[in-house]
Input
Amino acid sequence: MISRRKFIRSSFLLGAGLFSSASLDLLTGCSASCDFVQPVKKRKYVLADIHNHTVLNDWVRNTPIGVKFPMLADFAQDFFDKTSTTWKSSYEAGVDLICTAHFNPFDEWISMPLDPNPSAPANTFRMMDLLEKDLNGPSAKYAKLIRTPEEFKNHFYKGYDKNDPNFRIAVLHSLEGGHALGGRLEPLKEFARRGVVLITIGHFYNKGIATAPNAFPFFPDANSVRPKQGLSPFGREVIHEMEKLGIIVDVTHATSTALDDILKVSTKPLIATHISAKTLGDHAYSFHDEHIQEIVNRGGIIGIPLYPYMLSNYANIKDAEEYGSLSDVVRTIRYVTKISNSLKNICIGSDFGGYIPRLTDMNCLCQVNMLRELLVNEFGNEEIIDDILAKNVIDFIGNNWKRNI
Output
């Protein structure tokens, strides 16, 4: 049987050659746009998105492969990226906060399980540089980077007013995947210094930190470990060091066994930035009720993605794209608040810009008022909706993000 390593590498190189010589005019995919902004009145809170891939496309274009094969980057954006976030449209919609998840697919896919790329930290810092360059340049009139907990508290808790001409979307750095550490603890201190608020310690593969459901389960790799192994000794060190530095631990993508281990080791409130409930959507990435409840009981918070396929039991992605809507999101929010007996421990982690399928009724973050209207119909209380869409996660970050360096 071909190993996952060889399969992905050969497939990627084949794809690069094909798409660099093909015409994108033949593609049937649709690229997401943010030309339409649904009118909203000036609300104090609109949306705090705890998981968004605002710079992924730009990063792919700036990698050596993206530079060498620009049409491959065009293909990825036009065919796969069916959800979108732009600073301008989000600003016009009144979005409060966007937590940008830095994820370099080449560090994870080309460098396979248990052999993290030693260059991954440097690559991640370059992704952060790319975002900061944009926020210091063309997008400065729409958004600004928040680097410290003190800046965060000053922004949201001292005269927060969207009618102020100096209002900007607050932007935070986060990392998706502990592979960004390159197999070492040392980069954590620099990530903390640069303002990283949280790290998703697992992702598509086990990188020697915590087991995760395999992204490509039909192509086993000789270096893979079985899911029952959970959190590794190095993973325990990572969590300990993150808590020491004040970086919040994100448990999204962890297997049930890994999550059990994380709950035993961690001493601080946890976040699950973009998960689904296994009762509603029986997927490998979904969380059992008892894990959701335990995270909430410890003062943690649950982020719901705008990703119907993961939230429900559609037969396949095609059906989810045809029928999946914000109703799936509302149903999941209602369920999580019910089983956790809390309206204060839930938020939105859209996963927009992360090459996920679009919803039938929303493909851009600026259209968030559509979600608000459905939530108002469900819960009937504007203050509750403010909490779910924004204030819960703002307060969670305000209370739990530290910078002990």
